[in-house]
Amino acid sequence: MRSPLNSLTLPGSTVRRLFQLTGMTLLCSTVLTAPGFAETTTYKPLHNKAGPALKSASKLSKASLKKQALNANASENIHVVAAATSTGVTNTTPGGGLLPPETAAKAQQSVTRDFIAKQAATSNPISLVQYTPGITLSNADAFGQSDQSSFYMRGMGQTSVGYTFEGIPIADPSSYAPFTSEASDTENISKITVQQGVADISSPVYNSVAGAIKQYLSDPESHLGGKVNVSYGNHQLAREFVRFDTGEIGHSGVKAFASYSYGTNAQWLGPGRDRRSHVDAKVMKEWGEGNSARVFMTWTEQSFPFLMSISKSQWKQNGRSAAYYDPTYTPGDVNYYKLNSEERHSVVIGAPLVFNLGHGLTFTSEPYYVHLHGAGNNGQDQAEEGYNGTRPTGNLNIPGAVDGSAAVQAVDNFNQHTAGFNNVLSWKAGHNELQAGYWYNYYNQTEQAPFSVIGPNGTAENFWGKYPIKDQYGDAVMQFNIHLIQQLNSLFLSDTYKMFNDKLTLNAGLKFVMMSYKSTNLIPGDNYNYGRSDAQPLPQISASYQITPHDQIYFDAATAFREPSGILVYGNYWDAGAPQIDLAHSTGLKPEYSISEEIGYRHTGLINITASLFNYNMTNRQSSVTAYTGGRLVSQYINAGGQTSRGAQLAIGLRPWHGLSPYASFQYLHATMDNNLPDGTDYIRSAGKIAINSPAYTANFGLSYDDGHFFANGYMSYVGAQYSTFMNDEKMPAYAIGNATLGYRFKKIWFAKSPQLQVNALNLTDNKYLASGGGAFNAHPVKGVFGSTLKGSSPLYTVGGGFGLVFSMSSGF
């Protein structure tokens, strides 16, 4: 029976308290401005099973209705979506936007607009999830925006984490590096979900040993309007953002938005500038019950100078200054900053489609296309009488040569095309839901490493290697010239059954991934063809039980794998000064495979709590040893054998109470290596050692305040000491950094909706620290298993980002 209540308008503070309402489901229909908070939200009842309990609801006063709703014997949850400000802040999410309620039978935590909108507009998506338990951010710049930053999840690197954007794979298919700056501007991110441990079986990822991260782009608004944001800060930061929403176009049900941003700043450490131009756009239409079509596109063009990775002794001697390149050029200087930088262009297109076929059947399909073209270059010395693979080059006659050697720019020009689609068919019948899916992915990459002549001012003849140095046969001299084609076919079947009044949920599924690789390296004397294929069955099961409406326990057990990563896994890196290989392609690598188990507990209410215990057993653990070869930072990939990781994580957040919302998270991790690792003809005694980049303790603490006008927050992260060598003979010290926000929202001023001022301070105390270690077998000489002396090598570290200050002015219109 439909309720006689046609509409109900309540203050936002009241709506946030209406978490359960007898037999009534409400739908947000309008958003209005009200004093004291930023909105008054109007709701319409969709159905009412309570009968007499709310029969005369339309005759009740607001106070009486509020009292009745709060005291009623609740049988349904009310799901409220409210847009409080032009930035999307609602002040409804526990933990200041870091701990919304979750129900999945796995460790999962989302970051909402209540948190995202109050961070610096320059923030990289990875910096937005740094406070979730299990995440360790290695921030490489002052503003949280650089793709030189990286992260770890439960002690495993970012290449072990599946990353999707609007349901499509966005990470580099070869290296699995998540170039998140290509995905969307911060203002357009609606939510980011972190799955620590187990990725959804339907997710189009094949490297999710540690889990997955899912990023979502906001939908177009229903009404004509837009947003603007301008930001300025230290290090000559300047950024502008504008978004325009069409609203519903006529009565077609179609709506769209497009946005553009441009940002630039001086490199926070050393010379050079970062630049980024970006476009987000989305068109959508919803019709009938459960049908929708969306098409989105992002375009990015960016350039940035590199920072050096440095040893611990360099850090102790010179501090941060050891990590930056020379600001001025002198002839022969390969460390001039303009020679050591990167530029990238990218386009991402996706079209998620959902069709309600009736009879409980739903079909979703998402075709996609991703193009990435870039060059990451470095300066190095090149012999005039060199080699192109095994073939002598003859005299290269390089300008500026001294004693038979000259400074050149070594280009790494990569061009990637990825296309595919992910289809899922779902059938719901009674308490059962059956899902079946098929994912296809085609990846084509060309990566070339020619040399370019350097002019008298230190600028290369062509940044992209368009005019390369050629040998006596007229061929470009290169260190590698690789063409890789990868094809993937993946099938899955999953079944979910609910019983005991839907309190108990059981799930079992099987995913089967088939991959093939074909690679060529067109360097004279190299083996022309490389190739391999692989197939992996990936079963998973889970169960959850809703003890009370506010308390849930869950268990999951799953398998996952990750293919060896990096273009140089499939090709050799040649020394252009001698007929030899500087870095041989990896041999004997097998896919990393893991079996994981996890048990967890959640509580929702005034205080939200999520906690879990986890265990991983891994074989063929993929790791790397990183070092400079010539002037280029390259990684040698190794099979690190088995690894066992066990730990616990906890997050606690308070639902906004008088504007206050504290948050805390914690992780304990014990990760050990199961095998001795080969080093030449001997083995290092690494079995039983703590795995690298696996701090035993990490913790985050924060407090957010928002009264609708004034808002402020502060967050602190602590990362314990972590080993950077497999022999545990060198470690990276523990560190703690803090960020803070202050802001004020005004009432509507003429056409400006909720204009606001905001200041973000990052690394508030300018703590000087090392953010991550690159890994090495042993830092000091050690005796091997067979008695030989194994020489040490210093691991390399990334310098942590310094103090950043961002002042922003934004408004809707």
TrEMBL record:
Xref: Pfam families: Plug, TonB_dep_Rec_b-barrel
Membrane topology value: Multi-pass membrane protein
Residue ranges annotated for the TonB-dependent receptor plug domain, each copy included: 103-200
Places the protein is found: Cell outer membrane
Domain TonB-dependent receptor-like beta-barrel: 313-764
Keyword Aminoacyl-tRNA synthetase: no
SUPFAM superfamilies membership: Porins (SSF56935)
Keywords carried by this UniProt record: Cell outer membrane, Ion transport, Iron, Iron transport, Membrane, Receptor, Signal, TonB box, Transmembrane, Transmembrane beta strand, Transport
Family per record: Belongs to the TonB-dependent receptor family.
Protein name per its UniProtKB record: TonB-dependent receptor plug domain-containing protein
Species this protein is from: Gluconobacter potus
